[in-house]
Amino acid sequence: MKSKLKKIGILSILVTITLYIINRILYSLTTVKEILKGKENKYYEWRFGKIKYTVAGSGKPLLLIHDLTPGSSGYEFYKISNELAETNQVFIIDLLGYGLSDKINITYTNFLYVQLVSDFIKNIIGKKTDIITSGDSSTIAIMACHNNPDLINKMIFINPQDITKLNQIPSNGTKILKLLIECPILGTFVYNLLTNKTSITKTFINEYFYNKDLVKIGDIEAYTEAAHIKDFHSKYAISSYIGRYTNINILHALKEIDYSMFIIEGKEENDAEEIATSYLNYNNAIEVSYIKETKHLPHLEKPEEVISHIKMYMN
Description:
Blueprint: H1 2-31, E1 42-46, E2 49-56, E3 60-65, H2 78-84, E4 88-93, H3 110-125, E5 129-134, H4 138-147, E6 152-158, H5 163-166, H6 172-182, H7 186-195, H8 197-208, H9 217-228, H10 234-242, H11 251-256, E7 261-266, H12 272-282, E8 287-291, H13 298-301, H14 303-314
Parallel strand pairs: 3-4, 3-5, 5-6, 6-7, 7-8
Antiparallel strand pairs: 1-2, 2-4
């Protein structure tokens, strides 16, 4: 019996060491190019950590907020930011837990991000601001506007999340998955399986882009780096996202907001028309437009058309 226990113990140690080595190798391989580094990067000393952002241009302030999916960061706006900066002062933020911002071991919630965006507008931008969001971050802008209407003017949501999915609260299954991902070595290994280059490539081809021939290796590498930079601490924000802790019921806020709101949908995004219709059902003042032959990231797939729609709404 003692002999069996000893063998099990030795095997467990070997497996742990092997997983640790694999995790370190993957970290080195995915971050060596330092794609996200840039001289233009600035940092906002927020109460929960340093928040990386960039600012360019002059004029009416415009804040761009990236999606909450694995590998997301302000990088996703690089194809539209320069042209927007010709007419606006454009701020691009890496949310806490993403990109080059600090990545602390906490539960990330919608309320946390609402506080971050509100404080950023107050302390860094200093003026009433227009906002463009991508994917799940639409809820951050909606709740921030509802709680602090004096901070936000127009809002544009690129492929906002399905309202019914936003109503889903953490279940026993998602709570267990969150705890698993947050485990020191095994959890990091599971996180690597979800966010390695192969997985992110499949996501780009199957979910993010309509035309797979337009997928660029540089974009995949940037997303992979963002998912692993700062020694895998990105897993804490993603574990909260997968655990549904960033979800929130926005119906009350959506009904009450009387500011200008616009939705830009990738025409080929799953359930694009149904999602847009569900938002209109709760606020019929929202305007909707579609970018043909695009899915989840039209601002990377067809940036010129996205800019055209943005300018139409912002004028």
